[in-house]
Amino acid sequence: MKVGIVGDATRAVAWEQHLRPHTIVSEVELCPTLHDLDTVDACFILDESEQNLEVLLEGVRRGFHCFLIAKQPTNIPMLEKVHRSAKESGCGIQFSQWPSLAPATRWMMDKQPKPAYLHIDKEIERNTLINIHPAFKSHWMDEVGLCMKWLDSGIHHIEAKEVQLSGTYPIAIHLFLRFDNGSTATINIYSGSGSNRHQRLAANKHEILECNVIDQIVRVGRANDSNRVYFEKQEFDASTAAEKAAILFLKSVQMGKETGYNSYDALQLAIQTERIEARLKKFS
C-alpha cells in the first residue's frame, strides 16, 4: 500500500517510523497539506486545528481512506457530513480515540465484548493540565467514547455532576450512564491529584477485568470450583499503541472492514457529549 502522511513534518516522520517496518506498506509520502498529496491507498491526517474536519472531508471526497489523528471532534454538523460522505464514497475513516485503540483495551474488548458493568477511575496530577477546560473535557470524553464503543448500545439515561472550584476550575466529574441493553458505566475523574492513577473495571457474571491503564496491565478474575476468586495477569506494551492503531487502520482498509473507531462512532460520541453538557449545565 502507498500511504500518505499529511501535517507537521516532525510528527509525520514519527508516524512514518511506525509504518516503515511493515510489509503492508510499500511507500510513504509526507506532505504539509492535502493539496500536495498524490494518489494514495490510505492517508494519515495529523491536524489539531479547528478546521481538521474540513480537511478530513476533503480527503474523503478525493477518495482517500483517512485516519484523523487529533482530539475527538464535537462539531456535529461537520461529523454528519463526513459520515455521509464516507458512506457514499466507500472510504474508511478512523479517529484516534486512543482508549479504544490501546493494546490492553482491545484485548479486554475481545475477551469480554459487552460487559454488564464498567467502572472508570482517573486521577490526574494537577500540574499536568494545560488549558484546563478543554483538557478536562477531553479526559471525560475519551472515557465516554470508550464505554460507548465497548458496550455498542444506545445510552438510555445519563446522570452527570461536575464540581468547579470558585466556579472556574473543573476539579471533579462523575458520570453515570445506563445503556439500552441494561449495562451501566460509571466514570469518575479528579483533576487535583498529587499523582496520576487510571483504572478501568469491566465485569459480567463470569469474570472481572481490572486494568491499570498507565502500566497497561490487566488482571483477570474468576471464581474457581471452590467459589474463591483467583486472578491471572496480562501485560501489554503501551509504547506500541500508535503503531498498532496505524496497522489496524491499514488492515481494515486492505480487507474492506470497519475501522477501529469510525465516523459513526465519532458522530455518536459528539451527540452524547452534547447531552452530557446539557445535563451538567442543569445540575452542576
Describe this entry's structure for a reader.
The protein is α/β, with parallel strands linked by helices and 284 residues long. 37% of the residues lie in helices and 32% in strands. Helix 3 runs antiparallel to helix 8 (263-283) and helix 6 crosses helix 8. An eight-stranded mixed β-sheet has the order 7-8-9-6-10-11-12-13, covered by helices on one side. Strands 2-1-3-4-5 form a five-stranded parallel β-sheet, with helices on both faces. A hairpin with a 4-residue loop joins strand 11 (208-212) and strand 12 (217-223). The mean pLDDT is 95. The protein is built from eight helices and 13 strands. The N and C termini lie far apart (50 Å). The longest helix is centred in the last third of the chain and has 21 residues, at 263-283.
Described by strand count, sense and barrel closure, the largest sheet is: 8 strands, mixed
| Cross-sheet strand order for the largest sheet | 7-8-9-6-10-11-12-13
Q: How many beta-strand runs? A: 13
Proportion of residues in β-strands: 25-35%
**Mean pLDDT value:** 95
The level of helicity is: 25-40%
